[in-house]
Amino acid sequence: MHKIQLENVRVYTNHGCLHEEDLIGSEYRVDLEITANLSKSAQSDLLADTVDYVSLNKIIVEEMAVRSELLEHVAQRILTRIFKEESLVQNAEVKVAKINPPIGGDVQSVVIIMSQERE
To answer: How much is the pTM?
Structure first.
């Protein structure tokens, strides 16, 4: 098996439980790692034979744009779409980080990490 990673996908959106988060928004970072058999594309040199990382980035950006109260909800939506739209993906791990969360302390980020395997 082989891996593709998207690191530090930055998005500004408005997730959170607080009313202020809905109005003001916040900065988020998403990291994604997928596992797939990339042997065919390594030989063929054809985009149709691989997992298109442009598509993976699009999924992240589109799902991050849909407001949720919980980061877990956003992360699960990202995973669900990946398995629905990318048939070669066997495993995926997504990290969704809220940068400078409003939690009453000096915290750089809060990160939710979720992983899933194809059933």
So the answer is: 0.92
